[in-house]
Amino acid sequence: MADKIKVGHVHMSGCTGCLVSLADNYGGLLTILDRYADLVYGLTLADVRHIPKMDVALVEGSVCIQDKISVDEIKETREKAAVVVAVGGCACYGNITRFSRGGQPNQPQHESFLPVGDLIKVDVYIPGCAPTPQLIRNVCVMAYLLLKGNKDQQELAKKYLTPLMQLAERGTEACGCDLMYDVINQGLCMGCGSCAAACPVRAITHEYGKPNVNREMCIKCGACYAQCPRSFFNFDVITGFEGILETIDGALK
Amino acid sequence: MSKIVEISPTTRHEGHSKLVLKVDDAGIIERGDWLSITPVRGVEKLAIGKTMDQVPKIASRVCGICPIAHTLAGIESMEGSIRCEIPKDAKLLRIVLQCANRLHSTALHNILILPDFYIPGTDKKINPFTPEEPVRSVAKRIQRLREIGQTIGEIAGGEAVHPSNPRVGGMYKACTPRAKSKMYDLAKEGLVLAHEQMDFMIAVIRNMQKRDWTEVGGKQIPLPKTLGYHNQGYMAADPMYGSSNLDENPGWDPKRWTDVRPWDWYMGEGEVSLADPSYPIGGTSPVGTKVNPQMEACTGVPLYDGAPVEVGPRARLVKFKNYDEKGTWGQHIARQLEYTDCLYTIINALDEYNPSGKILADPIPQGDGSMGWAANEAPRGTDVHLAKVKDGRVLWYEMLVPTTWNFPTCSRALAGAPWQVAEMVVRGYDPCVSCATHMIVIDEDKRIVAQKLIQ
Amino acid sequence: MELSSEVNMMGTELGNYKLCVSARSTDKEILKKAQDGGIVTQLFAYALEEGIIDGAIVSGPGDEPWRPRPFVATSVEELMKSRGTRYNISPNVSFIKEATRSYGLDRIGIVGTPCQMQAVRKGQLYPAGLRDVPDKIALAIGIFCMENFPYQSIKQLVEDHAAMKLESVKKMEIGKGKFWVYGERGQVVQLPLKVTHKYEQPGCHVCLDYVANLADVSTGSVGSPDGWSTVFVRTKKGDDIWTKAIAAGCFETKSIEQVKPGLELVSKLANEKITKNQKTVEERAKFGVNKALRNPYLSPK
Ligand SMILES: Cc1cc2nc3c(=O)[nH]c(=O)nc-3n(C[C@H](O)[C@H](O)[C@H](O)COP(=O)(O)OP(=O)(O)OC[C@H]3O[C@@H](n4cnc5c(N)ncnc54)[C@H](O)[C@@H]3O)c2cc1C
Ligand code: SF4
Ligand code: SF4
Ligand code: SF4
Ligand code: SF4
């Protein structure tokens, strides 16, 4: 099928949990590969050993700047891919590798791990640890519509992806503190509880309606802030939730 | 004169690794070095000073395929250090989670290895993603088995990838009767599919075992009957779950464990002198490429009783069920034989589980710096974590993860095979390389013993 | 700014809906302690009994008097404990993932304020941390909301302004331009809303939704007579459930055109809220000297 987009999975210093999440679309993954995307690269799933040209690169993991292969690969990814998506907390924000500080044999010099966006321009963010199969799926479907769809579909895809692109522009730092800095301190929190639901390490509780972040549990994945309706809320897309969810469901039937 | 071939990176497994192979004129491997080239995120070192609650959550994230093993081994090493026994119902939920993860992981591994195998009775290799039958039905069954595993894990463990429910002292949340019956129904459905999938895989593996050759990069490569044979021992802590220092009869012994550095184990500097651009896909490294495994390897070499050991499904079956089939095929068969056990164990654990039982120890001691360890039987082998906790903070932490144990063993198992099928031997271990980044404590005396054993 | 002004267009303040009626539960037990027409409790009870939902995330009594606490109700008995409005924050969405985990729900019901409905829909379209939740939302019931309060505000309003002890309050209500406090022994105190304003939750001042435009079904007291509720049926799911519930005799209904004060008041209040808060959003853009406060409707930056 000539109409498919070319997608690759680039594995930097991540745990492969992001890829497992992609695969956790189960039957939907098979449909995506049948109809919308050719997996042209992904060491865990295919035998291709060198990064080819592709439409969309899904990058998992942060980059160890003391490892030349990693640095070369991420630069090559940017050159070869039209759209670079940082998948998961490690690629977006560093996640647990923010805590790395070297000193461990057999490569004690491996000390500095940077989110992908600190080395190359990243187009779209999918935060979370692990990122969810559903958000990865939605982004894949929208990327397909953006590149291969008709005018209306392209319009929708653009609107859908906009906040995820803005998250990429926002920066490479995230943790539970963002709820304090950019929501509560900004007078925006209304106590919905989304942040607590989103946190993958149960670092957030609600005390009298407002989030409390246990900072000695937080792993810096960025899920809470991305999930918060007061980080972004794009009426033009979310109001159409019924139709969009139906479209995505339909695409994967 | 022997030549050096390098396959870098290796594919269809988790993480980054490569093969440096010394081969004879016929292309048969004389000495193989399989090593991790995944950057070392250094979890053992970054753990120091952090809380005993956070460290297992970080440890989980060294591997997204056996995050359950790392979470549980991490937590239980902390519990081992602070001497905290957890309530029975918490333990049962952990067992359910453990088996659910093994089910999903084994099914995922099926997808990764199928391209090495033929549809029985044909010379056609299997592409698991083709929409054509009979493969599509198999792919769907694999995905459903994974879905069953991941969903049960999600209910018992809070998340399908990195579980959020386990914590030092037990679990955060008990499962309600509805959750229990949902897991039960899923396990029942899974059992039927697991039987079918096991039979299918065994037929495919046995068919391969009968073949004299396999096609690699357009050439027919002979398949030795002894593919993947080695003479190392086996190590397993338990048939299904694991063991810790709190057990009455621990299944693992820290005194029997030592380490050597890659420096003492792997080949030194060399240069690629044989290249094959037709090796799929993209070829082997070009002639002249400098290689230096002892400098490049990212993991240490752990030994048990002074020698490398194999861990994983076969090791468990050898230790606990008198299994004796050697080589790569025997290893693959052993893994399929574990399919249904995962589901039987889930069902039995759920039968025992009481939704209104206690799930958190009270009180939870904060630790005095004593050493604790837990050996969890991850899908791909024994995952040992060791910890010292004082006042709720981690003083010392070590992770001896399955693939780290298997690197040296598998390297030995490569000898005698044509280099083109080396990756097939590697995949027999279901390697999970990202997590295989372990720090080393050298015991000077034993290091010499180990070196001698290896030579 | 473009996007947010879109919702402020006259005529969109009530959101999309297929049907609007005035209604009341036919179950006397539910009505005994329901805030208004018992729509929320009745609809969940029906959906539970019919297997449309496996459980509902609702808000029930917490550790202190009138302090709400979200919980997952899987029986009508439990639902009964959630009847009535507690005018302070109940983070209902915090249970949305756990409901699918240790509770084992496949079809979730959830009730919440308009902002909580927004959270649910954002969670379905952008599930950053809500794995496997998006397809399990079976019935989202929204309740109208002008503003909410921190717990301490309610304490001060009741104990200082209304001079009553929180534990002896039977019901609180906002309606007819007043904050009403009803005591266990029959006392009734009404406070003018200008007293309550300063106590409001600041996050409510940028809220651009009054009648839970993104719910499957949304309901509130405004527009209908005492003891009755105004109900908007909005989505296919909502329509399906509502139609079945009516057929099953769960509700008495009256045409919204026939009741007083009717839809006009709902529209008026919705427009007032949105206009006022839209202004706040705009003023935030020039809050400092060449420095803006964040506008979540434009970007996460
Ligand atoms: C903060 C707040 C402000 C409101 N403002 C208005 C208004 O301006 N105009 C108007 O017409 N209606 C308003 N309402 C809605 C109204 O008070 C009733 O909740 C609604 O009419 C439902 O009544 P019922 O009899 O159908 O529900 P019932 O059957 O009594 O059930 C009430 C449901 O509301 C839920 N609930 C109670 N407190 C909260 C809370 N703090 N957060 C989330 N859920 C809660 C409970 O879980 C329960 O399921 C407001 C409600 C709240 C919580
Ligand atoms: S974001 Fe989480 S799941 Fe993804 S690579 Fe990092 S640790 Fe693994
Ligand atoms: S998700 Fe909800 S509760 Fe959490 S910070 Fe955002 S608005 Fe507040
Ligand atoms: S508080 Fe939780 S969700 Fe937020 S960044 Fe930290 S770990 Fe992630
Ligand atoms: S006014 Fe808006 S933000 Fe405040 S509680 Fe009501 S719906 Fe939520």
Structure, explained:
- The complex is a heterotrimer of chains A (253), B (455) and C (301).
- Chain A is α/β, with parallel strands linked by helices and 253 residues long.
- Chain A has 11 helices and 9 strands.
- In chain A, the strands form 3 sheets. In chain A, strands 2-1-3-5-7 form a 5-stranded parallel β-sheet, with helices on both faces. Chain A has a two-stranded antiparallel sheet with strand order 4-6.
- Chain A is globular.
- The mean pLDDT of chain A is 94.
- Chain B contains 13 helices and 17 strands.
- In chain C, the strands form 2 sheets. Chain C has an 8-stranded mixed β-sheet, sandwiched between helices.
- The radius of gyration of chain C is 19 Å and the shape is globular.
- With 301 residues, chain C is an alpha/beta fold.
- Chain C has 2 domains: 19-144 and 210-284, no CATH class; 146-200, Roll (Nuclear Transport Factor 2, Chain: A).
- Chains in contact: A-B, A-C, B-C.
- The site of flavin-adenine dinucleotide has 33 residues of chain C, from α3, β2, β4 and β9.
Keywords, separated by commas or semicolons:
heterotrimer; A: 253 residues; alpha/beta; 5-stranded parallel beta sheet; C: 301 residues; Nuclear Transport Factor 2, Chain: A; 9 helices; globular; binds flavin-adenine dinucleotide; binds iron/sulfur cluster
Sheet with the most strands: spatial strand order of chain B:
9-15-16-17
Biggest β-sheet of chain B: count, sense, barrel? Answer: 4 strands, antiparallel
List the ligand species. Answer: flavin-adenine dinucleotide, iron/sulfur cluster
Number of domains of chain C: 2
Structure classification of chain C: alpha/beta
Strand content of chain B: 15-25%
Distance between the termini of chain C: 14 Å
Shape of chain B: globular
Range of helix content of chain B: 25-40%
Low-confidence stretches of chain C: 1-10
